[in-house]
Amino acid sequence: MTVKAVPASGLLVLAVLAGAPALADQREDFLAGRTRECRRCDLAGLNFKRRDLAGADLTGADLSRANLHDARLTGARLSGADLSGANLNKANLSRADLSGAVLRDAMLYAANLDAAKLARADLTDALMGVTRLTHTDLTGAVLRNVDLRKARLAEAILVGADLSAAALDFAFLRGARFDGASLQEVRLRGAEAVEASLAGADLTGANAQGANFRGADLSRALLVGANFRRANLHEAKLEDAVFGDTTMPDGIIRGR
């Protein structure tokens, strides 16, 4: 009997058709709670409020506008997931992998992201007041216009991150690393940045009035137009920092 070869295009169609029911079944099982794996699933706009999803694999899933309020997502895998506009208020995402995830306009008020991986994540316009980000990796993340007021970022890694126009008023930044980060027009009023590293960071137009930078590293930082009035710069490293219309703690303008 002669066996006819199936064209490559035909094999691709068969593979897609075979995979579609499997993905549908996976999604159904996930929604029913029979599995915690739903990679690349369409879960947009669904309600997972207070659901226990610890350790769930949601890599590349669409969770845009989903309700994950107070959900348990400790150790969950969410790399590359779309969480834009999602409600993650009070969610526990400690040790979760959100590298490369999209969280634009997401609500993360009082969420726990301690030791989470958020490298290269996009958090533009996210609401993250009083959020916990201790030891969190935010290397190269985009946090433009993010509300991080009173957030805790102790020893967080934000090397090369973009925090332009972000609000970090009264945030706890002790030992955090902002080396080479963009902090243009950022608000740091009353922030606790003791021993933080901002080497080579761009703080053009930053408002750090009343902030505590005791022992912080601001060497090679761009401080043009920055306001440090009543700030604590005791023992801070300022070698090769660039000044220009910079307001110093005593009110004197440096670099005119």
Give a short overview.
With 256 residues, the protein is largely without helices or strands. It has 1 helix and 2 strands, in the order H-E-E. A hairpin with a 5-residue loop joins strand 1 (246-247) and strand 2.
Describe this protein's structure.
There is one protein chain. The protein has one helix spanning 8-31; strands at residues 246-247, 253-254. The longest helix is centred in the N-terminal third of the chain and has 24 residues, at 8-31. With 256 residues, the protein is mostly loops. A hairpin with a 5-residue loop joins strand 1 and strand 2 (253-254). It starts with 7 loop residues before the first helix and ends with a strand. 9% of the residues lie in helices and 2% in strands. The model is unreliable at 11-19 (pLDDT under 50).
Output the keywords.
little secondary structure, single chain, 1 helix, 9% helix, 256 residues, elongated
Low-confidence runs: 11-19
- Share in β-strands: under 5%
Largest sheet data = 2 strands, antiparallel
Tell me roughly what share of residues is in helical segments: under 10%
Report the span from N to C terminus. Answer: 91 Å
Count of helical regions: 1
Integer average pLDDT: 93
Number of strands: 2
Order of helices and strands: HEE
Output the strand order for the largest sheet.
1-2
Oligomerization state of this entry? single chain
Radius of gyration equals 22 Å
Structural class: little secondary structure
Shape: elongated
